[in-house]
Structure formats: C-alpha cells, structure tokens
Amino acid sequence: MNWNQYSQVYEDLGIAVDTLGCVMLDLKPLENMYSIELDGASVALYQSKNKKRFWINGWVADKKPHVTLLYGLLSKHYKKHIDVVLSDWSCDQVIVDHVDYFPSPYSDENYYCIVAHIKTTPELLEGHRRLSLLPHINTFFDYKPHMTIAYINAEQGPAYRDKLIVQFNKLLQDKPIETVAIST
Prior knowledge:
By secondary structure, this protein is of the alpha+beta class. The chain has helices at 7-12, 79-85, 122-131, 158-172, and strands at residues 21-27, 37-38, 41-42, 66-73, 93-103, 111-118, 146-153, 176-183.
C-alpha cells in the first residue's frame, strides 16, 4: 500500500506529492553500468517524456545515486533543521542486499525501475527515525532503503527484466558502496 492508491485523497487535500521534500544519502557513483549487455544488445533503457518526471532517465546509478533517508517533508526548506537532527549521525557505507525491481506506478509510463535493495542497518534506521521528527507525510508504510540503478522499457517483457536482474545481482549483491554526502 502506498500513496499512489489514494492519489485523489492527496489531490483533495491540496498536496502535490511530487513537490514534497526529500533527504538523500548520496552514494559513490557506480562505474561501467553502460557496459551491461543482455542477449548481445544494449539494455533497453527508458526515459520519461513527462518533464515533471525528470528522474525517470535510463541509467542513473552512474550519475548521482542515493538512498532516500526520508521522503515526504512538507517543505523543501528544512535544511537548517535537517542539519540539527542529523548533527551527530553518520553512515559511511551501505551494503547491497539484492537487486530487484519496482513496476511503474504511472499508468502512462511503461517501465521497470531496477533497484538495489540496501541492507537496513541500525545507522540507516537511526537517520530515518531522526528525520521523521520533522513535519512530513509518509507516502509508504515501511522504510525500505534502496538505490535506483536504471529504468528499463517494460515492453521488453518480464523475462528480459529478470535476466538483467540476475546480472546485477552477480555484480552487486553484498557489495559495500561508499556514502559521499547528504543532500536534499
């Protein structure tokens, strides 16, 4: 269950979910992601035609990969308060648990979001809990740390997606990834 199932409620309340604030734990970019091939061809990447969905942009793990610490802040202008609640908190690395996917939540976008699920460590939970003290809306029930790797075209089919996930699991499962900053 997540906010997409009740989007009309948010609309009626005057809340544009895509404008809520976010705190991210930035990660060291992964290299050589463009070299992944499946069945002798380059991966069929997906890029949104909707400019408001700028983040849906093919390979993303080599640009500014991140783990979301908290999404749903009621203002994007909480930097001072974020710094206070995270003042003595740190997380030097995250570890990939496994790679999987999320289907597109948008009826007009046909893609799979390939993600590296991150092991939920005490450090990540502590950062999330501290940030939860700030005014926010939970758009998902559970905190499931993950890093987006890529958006791929769902027209290739589930078998194609699953083969790609197997390759990514071979490359990334149990791999530590260094953190580099906190951003909003």
